[in-house]
Each structure stands twice: as structure tokens, then as C-alpha cells.
Amino acid sequence: MNVTTHNGGEGGSLAQRAYQVLEEQLVTLNLTPGELIAEKELMEKAGYGRTPVREAIQRLSAQGLLQVLPRKGLMVTPLRRSELVQIIEARRVLERLMVVKASERANPDQRQALRVLSAHLETAGNDLESFFRLDHRLDELLQAACQNPFLVNALVAMHSQCRRLWYLHRHMLNLPLSAQLHTGLARAVARGDGAGAIRALDEIIAILEELVGGLDVLS
């Protein structure tokens, strides 16, 4: 096994960087839901040693992306319709609060960043990978702008689970519509329009509900 040894420096701690690599693998379904996987394999995929990967595993497990199975190792958490229904139910309420507070509290630099991002989103209607990258960046900007770390911590795991859902249905998405709605959300927050941000958010959540409806009814 060739595990790259990384030194500290830019990009945060080793555990943080291991988490970022593995979270990306999980939300893009490069690690398949339901798949059994050993810690050693995750070390290879992340390119980090045992200690940072174990810390990342603990964090991913707490977020519901990995499950620790006694005497069996690790399993990538399946996408279960019943759980996603509950996630979206909670996300709708918490994210409405986040976009309203972001609309109220964003500083001038954050508002400008949202305007720039909205312009990129507007042209991402036919580029799936760009859309997912920009959507993730929008989450980061809204999380920073709302200035409520407790709210952000509650939403991070929900966003990861929902990104898995987006990615699962990526070939069936109405990408131009999704990009348009995310553009509207970014612009509403940038101009301090909390009510407009909620309207755009509710339409995005409605798409997620449709995607959940396409999962196996027994899951």
C-alpha cells in the first residue's frame, strides 16, 4: 500500500484534509452506498495515514455517511428513502433560517462573492460538474454569511446527504432549472431579500422531494 505522507501547512490539519477527500468520494458516489470498505482502503483513497483517516472516519460516521460495523469494518451508508424524507423535513426549516440570517448579516465582500457566484451559476445550466462545484460553494458562502456556527453544524451533514441524492439522479436532473433556482437564491441573499431567498429555497427543496420520491419505496 502506498500512502502518501503529507505535512501540515495550507489547507488545514491532516484530519481535515483527509475528511475533505473522503467526503468528496462519498457524496459523488465514488464510494458506493452499501459498499463494505476497510480502513486501509480509505487510507489509500485519501492518501493519508491511519491517525488522520481515523479522525475523518469518526466525523463521517457522525454525519451518517459511514457506518462502523463491529467486527466487519465500515460500510458506506445506503441512501434510504425514509431517512432522506426526515433529513429534508429538518433541512427545510433550518435552511430557511440560514438564508434569512445570511440575507441580514452578509458583509459587503460576501454579498459581492454571491453576486459573482450567481453569474457563474447562470451559465452552468449544461455543465453538471460545474453546477455541483458551484452549488457546494454557495453552501459555503451561505454558511459563512449567516454567522451562526450552531446552525451550520446542524446543516453540514444534511447537505452532504442531499448532495449524494443530487449526484445519484444527476442524469435525470433538469439542470437549467436547478441552476436558475440556485442563481435566484444567491442573488436574493446578496441583495438582502430574505423572503425571496426563502421562495428560491423552497423550490430547490421541492426538487429534492421529487428525487427522494424516485428512490425505492421500501428503503
Structure description:
With about 220 residues, this protein is mainly α. The chain contains nine helices and three strands. The chain has two domains: about 60 residues, Winged helix-like DNA-binding domain superfamily/Winged helix DNA-binding domain (Arc Repressor Mutant, subunit A), CATH 1.10.10; about 130 residues, Four Helix Bundle (Hemerythrin (Met), subunit A) (Up-down Bundle), CATH 1.20.120.530. Helix content is about 70%, strand content about 5%. Strands 1-3-2 form a three-stranded antiparallel sheet. A hairpin with a 3-residue loop joins strand 2 and strand 3.
Q: Give me the number of helical elements.
A: 9
Total number of strands: 3
If classified by CATH, what would the architecture of the largest domain be? Up-down Bundle
| Neighbour order of strands in the largest sheet | 1-3-2
**What percentage of the residues does DSSP assign to strands (E)?**
under 5%
Largest sheet: 3 strands, antiparallel
Oligomer: single chain
General form: globular
Instruction: Give the CATH superfamily of the largest domain.
Output: GntR ligand-binding domain-like
Based on CA atoms alone, the radius of gyration comes out at 18 Å
CATH class category of the largest domain: Mainly Alpha
**What is the arithmetic mean of pLDDT?**
90
The fold-level CATH name of the largest domain is Four Helix Bundle (Hemerythrin (Met), subunit A)
Spatial gap, N to C terminus: 36 Å
